[in-house]
Amino acid sequence: MDGTGTVERVETVVVGGGQAGLSVGYHLARRGVPFVILDAHERIGDSWRCRWDSLHLFTPARYDSLTGLAFPAPAHSFPSKDEMGDYLEAYAKRFALPVRTGVTVDSVARSPHGGFVVSAGASGFEAENVVIAMGTHQRPRFPQFAGELAPDIVQLHAGAYRGPAQLRDGAVLVVGAGNSGAEIALDVAASHRTWLAGRDTGHVPFRIDAAAARVLLPIVLRLVFHRLLTVDTPLGRRVRPGLLAHGHSLVRVKPRDLTAAGIERVPRVVGTRNGRPELADGRVLDVANVIWCTGFAPDFTWIKLPVFDEKEPVTRRGVVVNEPGLYFVGQLFLYAASSAMIHGVGRDAEHVVDVIAARRRSRRP
Fold this sequence. Notes:
Elements: E1 8-9, E2 12-15, H1 19-31, E3 35-38, H2 46-49, H3 81-94, E4 99-100, E5 107-110, E6 116-120, E7 123-127, E8 129-132, E9 139-140, E10 154-157, E11 172-175, H4 179-189, E12 194-197, H5 210-215, H6 217-228, H7 234-246, H8 255-260, E13 264-266, E14 269-273, E15 276-279, E16 289-292, E17 296-297, E18 326-328, H9 342-363
Parallel strand pairs: 1-7, 2-3, 2-8, 3-4, 8-18, 10-16, 11-12, 11-16, 12-13
Antiparallel strand pairs: 5-6, 6-7, 9-17, 14-15
Helix pairs in contact: 1-9
């Protein structure tokens, strides 16, 4: 409810104003479907701006555009996280998308009148359709033994890391050897002795440079990630569980980059001994800082509907079958390996909006 105790009625509510939510908004606007986008951040694009200072996208600008607006940078350059945030803000302005910032959704539930009730603090909405356009990066994941580390060790999750200035003097252990862990390890290695712990995730076997952008990236991004690896292909169904569990292989950072920076690769962290991190090989590292690049856990407890299995929403290409009118966009491998990527989210958004538009037509007298 709003401050007057009334509920606002909107045909479609989109929860999340990042690239997924804006993509949904673009297609809803083209179809003439009334909607509003609710985003918890104070400014459009802040989901990118609040990440670590040195972050750049690992895909060139040529592949970083949403439908309808090219990314305003040289095609083979790698945009910074702030440039990506500014692009999303410009995208919303260019297409006059109705984004309400600073609005945190508390719950989504069925309305006794049909449709859904979306509660957001003092605001309330009734909607025929709700699109959950949020990724799973919602609740930082820490191992249970993190609390057993000595209190003099600075602990940061990747989601809270901004730069080396947050760290104490002394050695750094980065836990989690995926893309975030590798890039953060490189960021701190210039000023701190650095260990990188975790399983080998593999790596893309070529440099993401201008030549690769012209020849190899179209194959990887558009053919493999977008076409071959989907829930409709045997290969995609075989690859999907591993991708959901471990994320993508290293893309921009290569193992030799870590070696050149003086970063020592070590086995996974299994616990603590005397307040210090203990590795699977029995070693104990005397570190002053630990950065947990251990991912995020989805937190959809605010969706008061039976639409989840143990790990994820149960959908058919983002359409929740047992709750008509509820949709998801922007989830990792929702339909394809590209579903959570900027170049791939638009296809999922368009599909969901096609279903919304068809449902709308069927309800007309």
